[in-house]
Amino acid sequence: MRNHLLTLATVGLVTLGLYLLTQMDGTSGLLSALRLIFIWGIAAISLNLINGQLGILSLGHHGFMLVGGYVTALLMLPEKERRPFRTRLLSDWARDNLDLDKWLRGLGLDFIANSIDLKFIIALFIAGLAAALLGVLVGAPSLRLKGDYLAIVTFGFGEIIRLLPNAPEVAAFTNGPLGIKGIPGDAGTIWWTFFAFLFVLWFFTRLKFSSYGRAFEGIREDEIAAEAMGVNLAYHKVLAFTISAFFAGVAGGLYASYLQSVDTQTFNFFVTFFLLVAISLGGLGSITGAVIGTAVVVLVRNYGGFLEQPYPAWVGYLSGALLMLGAFAFSAYIRKTRRLRPVIETKHYIFGAIGLALLLVTVFFRNEPWMTQTVQFFGMRKILLAVILILIMIYRREGVMGRAEFSWKLIFGPREDIPSEEQRKQDAWLSNPELNPGASETKEDDDASA
Amino acid sequence: MPLLELRNLYKSFGGLQAISNVSLTVEEGEIVSIIGPNGAGKSTLFNLITGVYKPDRGDIFFEGQRINGLSPDQVTKRGIARTFQNLRLFTHLTVLENVLIPQHHRLKSGWLGAVLRTPAYLREEEKMREVALEKLSFFGPRLMSFRLHQPVYVLSYANRRRTEMARAMATGAKLLLLDEPSAGMNPKETKEITQIIRRFRDEGGYTIVLVEHKMNLVGEISDRVVVLDYGEKIAEGNYHDVVNDPKVIEAYLGRREE
Ligand SMILES: Nc1ncnc2c1ncn2[C@@H]1O[C@H](COP(=O)(O)OP(=O)(O)OP(=O)(O)O)[C@@H](O)[C@H]1O
Ligand SMILES: [Mg+2]
Q1: Which residues constitute the domain of residue B220?
Q2: Residue ranges of E strands in chain B
Q3: Partner residue opposite A439 with nearest CB, options B91, B171, B188
Q4: Number of domains composing chain B
Q5: Could you say which of A136, A340, A426, B153 has the lowest number of CB atoms within 10 Å?
């Protein structure tokens, strides 16, 4: 009860904060970063269901997002934007009738057709359904494959779906490689993304902590055991693929309306790649982690621009030197405090030496032309992300959150897996042969009870 | 009608005849032990019954219905559950979750109901928790309090074995196939597990087929002992007769050179 109140209060505060942000000047950059975090957060959480909770490496997520993006775009596109490429349609019927507005009015739902927001919700829902249908199609044949083979198949599916809009047969719908422009953006304000994100958080948390979520995690832990315990593998895998694809489609639709345009490059493989980076950073299997990872990735991409500005070369040398020295100091510190044997290894000294050498070079040659010339490092943001990922893989392989979720219990307790003094005594009694002759001779319950 | 009936089962792996012409019946409420030297085909027999492997020839009947050809989850739904020789727990999940997952197949609520937490779903979830605790309570309080919420990987080996048995029972099966339930346990623990397996039958109403190498355990609880050697059934009967059967002694010790 207390926890529900806390959650409600937090949601209220965040909503209020967002509202204040929208009222202030000069926050548009921050707001669009937040919008991206929400959109990519939805995509990451949905990918996490397959890759983290079900434990299947799927590389086709961008395909699902693309379907959602195109469907939303086509449903939302005003008649005049659509006319130029629709004329290529062979069938008059299709040209005139594939129109969400027309259907809605035909059903007497004029109030929806007149409201861009309501139309947007319907478009997102249909986008999700279209992607989900594809999820079934991809999920079903993939069931017979495992591991790397499955990853390759999902990747192939993703790419095929991505290239489909370029095919001449469908170009009349999708405008081919030119893509679709002029998607009305006014429905895609931060509020719809925010509410969609909240809904996704709620939905996936509920799913994870339900019997179905446990079944998914059982499959991840041990497929053979899960099947032997009565879990229908095919059903649960397809279910997870479908749910995941649905929300990927929704995220794709939100992203298309954020960009107000969509083409086949909008959702290329790098989309899946960045999502994978995000969920690996945050912790595979953790919804909280997926959000954290997404936030890191989006913030680096949005605010890392200064890394790619032109600078005099010595800035580069200096930062290199400081990085190396920092790495030396940090790893030496870790070694000293965390390991059983506080030794500093040779490789750390090498780091330190390189750093020092770079520093000296920078200082001595600071006036040389090759030091003062202007250089620019394109792609620094990607490199930074890669470095963050490498560091996580070295120091905390399971990601920031591991498989755990944020919960109020984590902060305020009580933790149920730690024995009370009384329980500890009973446990000792159970496993102590002198107190309890029925128990084992050796100290049997050597479980970590702390 | 016997609970489980195997008729002339055959199974080969490439050139190796792992099971050949094995027939066996198990009556309801029995404890049957399957023994035999390493590689005799005991685990393979379990894998055939539970649908992990399909028999090359022969039939398997459970409660009078033919079950060969069913997938493992369908076999479990019919009422046969097993433990694994090398433990196959859901290692990163808690003890409680491990004992809840086998009940998932009996869930009537759909995934939407589970997400919405409909009253019907919450009742089922509550029921699953009760069943989980009931099955874990066979092993005394040691898995019941704080251990419920500990991940399996922190448990001792013996506790993992116990968790796996509780997990098998939680499927709602009538027939338990236990593959070396006492492996890795010391003599005291083995004695305790012997009593507990007997209680599975007496209090839980389970029928039990177990594979074991520890003869004192087998001798103490078996109603009937079946001996496999090179995939063939070479003896069957009560413990005393079987261990004195020359063919069995030969299988274990080898033929005496004259
Ligand atoms: N999947 C498989 N592929 C090939 N050979 C197999 C397979 N499974 C089992 N075998 C072989 O079948 C024979 C019987 O194996 P099984 O595991 O049933 O023996 P077991 O009686 O359980 O032995 P143990 O007492 O060591 O557990 C062995 O020779 C084994 O190598
Ligand atoms: Mg075996």
Answers
A1: 4-79+173-257
A2: 4-13, 16-26, 31-35, 57-62, 65-66, 80-82, 175-179, 207-211, 224-229, 232-237
A3: B188
A4: 2
A5: A340
Could you tell me if residue B166 is inside a domain?
no
Residues B75 and B184 in one domain: yes
CB contact, 8 Å: A224 with chain B? Answer: yes
**Candidate from B42, B182, B210 with most ligand 1 atoms within 8 A of CB, to mutate:** B42
- The percentage of chain B sitting over the pLDDT mark of 90, rounded to a whole number, equals 79
pLDDT tens for each residue of B178-236 = 999 998 888 888 999 999 999 999 999 999 999 999 999 999 999 999 999 999 999 99
Q: What is the largest CA-CA distance in chain A?
A: 90
Given pLDDT bands bounded at 50, 70 and 90, which one contains residue A450? very low
Alpha-carbon dihedral A274, A276, A278, A281, rounded to 10 degrees: -130
Residue B138: burial class (beta carbons within 10 Å; 0-12, 13-18, 19+): middle
**Chain A from 389 to 408: CB within 8 A of any B CB:** 403
CB atoms B76 and A224 under 8 Å: no
CA pair distance B132, B103, nearest whole angstrom: 9
Q: What is the ipTM of this complex?
A: 0.93
Instruction: Determine the residue of chain A that is closest to B187 in CA distance.
Output: A440
Residue A153 has pLDDT above 80, yes or no: yes
Report whether residue B48 contacts ligand 1, using a CB cutoff of 6 Å.
Answer: no
What distance in Å separates the CA atoms of residue A221 and residue A353, rounded to the nearest whole number? 45
Per-residue pLDDT band for A441 (boundaries 50, 70, 90) equals very low
Q: Are B130 and B232 found together in one domain?
A: no
Q: Is B11 part of a structural domain of the chain?
A: yes
Judged against a pLDDT cut of 60, whether residue A446 lies above it is answered with no
Full DSSP string of B45-62: HHHHHTTSS--SEEEEEE
Q: How far is A130 from chain B (nearest CA, A)?
A: 19
Residue B188 forms part of a structural domain: yes
Ligand 1 atom nearest residue B180's Cα: 27
Architecture of domain A30-304: Orthogonal Bundle (1.10)
